[in-house]
């Protein structure tokens, strides 16, 4: 029986610990650790999540099980604990970045979701990790964390520089 380690950026000692923990957990009847997208994004109970670029029902399906009291709604300008911007290309994303920090509560997070495989249909400039970092730099921002949402979408957590 084999056990996978979920985070390859861990040190050797951390990887060994995680692998042993998962093996013991599995042996005791538990299942291998599976995080929902909501857990990966750090969504907590009572959070307000604002979404721009994807329907709310589609976003909720991708987030998975949500903590109690979480509200997911479209982007309306009021402060949210997290804002998720979904884009198919640089031209689609650039206008969404303008003023976005005014809509994020103190200590909140900004996530940019983009299609895996770099090229979206009809996009002149592909949106991927490197082109996204360049665009963010133009807006005084920096990407700090990457996660996989599903087989189609990747997500980058963004901070102000």
The SSE string, one letter per element, is HHEHEEHEHEE
Overall radius of gyration = 17 Å
> What is the average of the pLDDT values?
84
Annotated CATH homologous superfamily: Vaccinia Virus protein VP39
Structural class of the secondary elements?
A: alpha/beta
Q: CATH architecture, please? A: 3-Layer(aba) Sandwich
CATH C-level name: Alpha Beta
Q: How would you characterize this protein structure?
A:
It is built from 5 helices and 6 strands, in the order ααβαββαβαββ. The protein has helices at 12-27, 37-41, 56-63, 90-97, 129-138, and strands spanning 48-52, 71-74, 80-87, 104-115, 141-148, 153-160. A 6-stranded mixed sheet has the order 2-1-3-4-6-5, with helices on both faces. The longest helix is centred in the first third of the chain and has 16 residues, at 12-27. The chain starts with 11 loop residues before the first helix and ends with a strand. The model is unreliable at 1-9 (pLDDT under 50).
